[in-house]
Amino acid sequence: MAWVIACWQMTMRKHMSFRARVMLMAIGMGLTMSLVFAAAAIFITERYEHVLVGALLQDEANAWAERLFEDPNARLPSSELQRAYLRRPGETNPLPTHLAGLTPGVHEDHSSSSDGLHVGVFDTPAGRIYLEMDLREIEALERYLLHILFAVIFAGALLSSLLGWWLARSATRPLRRLAGEVERLDTAPHITDLAAHHPRDELGRVALAIDSYQRRLVEAEEVERAFFADASHELRTPVAVVRGALELLEEDVQAQPRLQAPMRRLRRGVDEVSTLLEALLRLARRQLAEREVMDVDAWAHQFLTTLVQGCAAPVTVSIEGRAGTLPLPLRDAELILSSLLRPLLAKPIGDILTGVLSPQGIELHFHTVQEDVPRLTSPIRNMASRSDRNLGTSLIGRLAKAHGWQVDMLDEKSLSIRWPHPAPTTQVN
């Protein structure tokens, strides 16, 4: 049993799977029980043989002692299976070599030439009687029993391994079911009741702990939402004050051309801060804009026209292609497009903004009247050619990714946005 415990401790240190550990433990227990059974069977067999042969030889010696008392010249048996020798008191007649020196009692000769030979030495009134009994057939049966016990040990180990595999599978089935339920949980925290579907045992305690953890997550999210609601109010208020003051300043500098360029830069900065603040709060509160089924062609033309109105140089909006009616998150789409286009609008890189629409997305290109609209074979033809703006880790990039959008800066004058169609419901991670 000690070596079974040692093997178990070794398997625990080897970071084996639970099923493998149970199987090894079952094999160890099966081997131990089989070995104990085999040892007990051999011990009982040998002991039974010794007691039985001793009683037979003792009874035979008493019978020959009585017969020799009645007839001192009686002839002792001398056959292949049984032989007897008598040494009367005072006689020195020679005995077979294997009998010389034997003391009274029952002896077994384990030599290879006389395997199965049992000798009983008894002192009687007629003298010392030596009785030999050849039990070779019994010894052959003992060897056959030994082979059977080896088969029992092997079968015990095999059966115990199968039983261990079945027990491990049965024991881990509820755990695997619980793991599947946890894997199917939504990424957004919500109240669960996993413990109701499991018994009140150790596995039930695990399910109860998961339910308790989910409740704490929900409570933490509620506290977080309350915090962001307060932060939203506190952050938007100074931005609104700055925006109002900026509008007053813009009216005052209408007659001062040298101040109009700085005012436009200030306006872009305030707009960018507002956009990033809105994106930050949406991501932090995990409250994405709901998708609305709308005419994407009309919306894109109207939104882009409004967006370019504040440019220093006039920019004409041109829409090509058709996207049709699609479900898009209107507010977040405007946030993403305005944030991406605002830096491009601040540069004199073209007087025409062309939007190429399709049900899969939109391409936006700045170019001059003399330039043709770039025709790209695919908006994602080269994923490695993205700009160094690293949109994937920016707030706008994260917001676009939360909706399943793919944003690519194709070059310094062009960008591409691809949205899923039909758009799936997404979660913010």
Key phrases:
alpha+beta; disordered C terminus; 429 residues
Brief rundown of the structure:
By secondary structure, this protein is an alpha+beta fold. Helix content is 53%, strand content 16%. The protein has three domains: 2-162, no CATH class; 194-226; 288-429, Heat Shock Protein 90.
Unreliable stretches (pLDDT < 50, length at least 5) are: 376-390, 423-429
- Work out the radius of gyration: 49 Å
How much helix, percentage-wise, in residues?
40-55%
Oligomeric state, counting identical vs distinct chains: single chain
Count the domains: 3
Strands ordered across the widest β-sheet: 6-8-9-11-10
SSE run: HHEEEEHHHEHEEHEEHEE
Specify the structural class. alpha+beta
Strand content: 15-25%
Q: What best-fitting shape do the alpha-carbon axes yield?
A: rod-shaped
Number of helices: 8
Q: Could you give the count of β-strands?
A: 11
Mean pLDDT: 79
Distance from N terminus to C terminus (CA atoms, Å) equals 52 Å
